[in-house]
Design a protein that fits this description.
302 residues; Nucleoside Triphosphate Pyrophosphohydrolase; 3 domains; six-stranded mixed sheet; 6 helices
């Protein structure tokens, strides 16, 4: 299963618009609330794993949150409601009751490979929603403060009546293929030797196929033809939908855009298989299984 997918919660979109229902669920003794501190989930377990997300009953971790802190409805697990609460205002929550000695806050990107798949999907949803609320407290139309509505899936501006909804940014991520080779690149921010599939945001007025061809040409000078879809992955850093594709290479000579990439290269299928199996290829590393780039390489190499 692709990491951050497979969320089993019922998002109850028809019920979360009822403010009274949300308020009742917020204090229901069966409800679970997960605290996030500076967008980091609260987990228990060793540094090497496995980890497990920690949930609290109502009335416990709320003491650590600011009065206007976002508390978002994640969905229903059967009849049990699940919420995420932003406690970023707390100066040292791991040492403060009720969280003291019960776990710790971990960066979701690093913790995801150590958590159960369903926890990863739920925490990805929670992080993306809380992140959106942290950055959209004021109306982009008139600048007035906005109010959290619909359990966290809408913000409303009482000043100009504008409504604002969480956004997902579509990103294409792709491998250009040339027979037994695929094209990989190393971003300028990547560590030495780390190569991945190329990626970029879809621009206004573009199709997925057009974005794939444009990004490949802009970053590497490679012209491509047929584009085929493989899979998607929600990516909560902060809130993207990664659209994984393969593209038929029509040219071979690489011309790197140095403002985007440190380098790019063709990777042989045999080398990709060796890397996926945990082997060593001089000067090349690939992304871990948390990333869709890993799964694109795996699907092609297999």
């Amino acid at each position: 299963m692709m990491p951050f997918t497979g969320n089993k919660l019922d998002r109850a979109s028809d019920r979360r618009v009822d403010a009274a229902w949300i308020a009742a669920k917020r204090v229901d003794p069966s409800t679970f609330i997960h605290p996030l501190w500076k967008l980091q989930p609260f987990v228990t377990g060793s540094d090497e794993g496995p980890l497990e997300a920690v949930y609290f009953r109502p009335g416990l971790c709320e003491t650590l949150a600011a009065p206007d802190a976002p508390c978002v409805f994640l969905g229903l697990d059967g009849e049990r409601a699940m919420f995420a609460l932003d406690i970023s205002a707390a100066p040292d929550p791991e040492r403060t009751e009720p969280l003291a000695d019960l776990g710790r806050f971990r960066n979701l990107r690093s913790a995801a490979s150590l958590l159960p798949a369903n926890d990863v999907a739920i925490l990805g949803q929670a992080k993306a929603l809380i992140d959106w609320h942290q950055r959209h407290g004021f109306c982009p139309r008139c600048g007035a403060p906005t109010m959290l509505m619909d359990g966290g899936y809408r913000r409303f501006c009482a000043s100009c009546t504008a409504e604002h909804f969480p956004r997902t940014d579509p990103v294409v991520i792709m491998l250009a293929l040339d027979g037994e080779r695929c094209l990989v690149g190393r971003g300028r921010q990547f560590p030495p030797g780390m190569f991945s599939a190329l990626a970029g945001f879809i621009e206004l007025g573009e199709t997925i196929e057009e974005a794939v061809r444009r990004e490949l040409f802009e970053e590497t000078g490679i012209r491509t033809g047929a584009v085929t879809y493989h899979a998607t992955q929600p990516w909560p850093f902060p809130s993207s939908l990664m659209i994984g594709c393969f593209a038929e290479a029509l040219s071979r000579d690489i011309r790197v855009d140095e403002s985007e990439l440190a380098e790019a290269r063709w990777l042989d299928r045999a080398d990709a298989r060796a890397l996926l199996a945990g082997g060593h290829v001089e000067g090349v590393r690939i992304p871990p299984p948390i990333a869709i780039a890993h799964h694109l390489l795996k699907a092609w190499a297999g």
